[in-house]
């Protein structure tokens, strides 16, 4: 999920990604685009089956500069990050900008 899109005025982007850890595990991670993706804060390993069957919720708190991710109500990731203003048309789910 991209939560700050690439634009002519701003060549960066932030995303929440699911990273395959191998062995049936994944991690929820933050990533930043500055000409290439750089991973940031990451959750502990999560079983793929749990993620596939669960409900993943993402809270972006711009006032507190905080990202909180829960899976079936359990917090799996909490990270302080720079969150810039977001226009609704900039939210991209399941696709890359461009």
Give a quick set of tags describing it.
mainly beta; single chain; three-stranded antiparallel β-sheet; five-stranded antiparallel β-sheet; globular; 98 residues; 50% strand
Q: Outline of this structure?
A:
The protein has 98 residues and is mainly beta. 6% of the residues lie in helices and 50% in strands. Strand 6 and strand 7 (66-71) form a beta hairpin.
Give helix and strand order, one letter per element, not per position: EEEEEHEEE
Low-confidence stretches: none
Note the main sheet. 5 strands, antiparallel
Question: Distance N terminus to C terminus?
Answer: 15 Å
What's the layout of helices and strands?
Blueprint: E1 2-4, E2 13-22, E3 25-33, E4 37-42, E5 46-47, H1 48-53, E6 56-61, E7 66-71, E8 74-80
Antiparallel strand pairs: 1-2, 2-3, 3-4, 3-5, 6-7, 7-8
Structure description:
The chain has 98 residues and is mainly beta. Helices cover 6% and strands 50% of the residues. The strands form 2 sheets. Strands 1, 2, 3, 4 and 5 form a 5-stranded antiparallel sheet that branches. The chain has a 3-stranded antiparallel sheet with strand order 6-7-8, with no helix packed on it. The longest helix is centred in the middle third of the chain and has 6 residues. The mean pLDDT is 82.
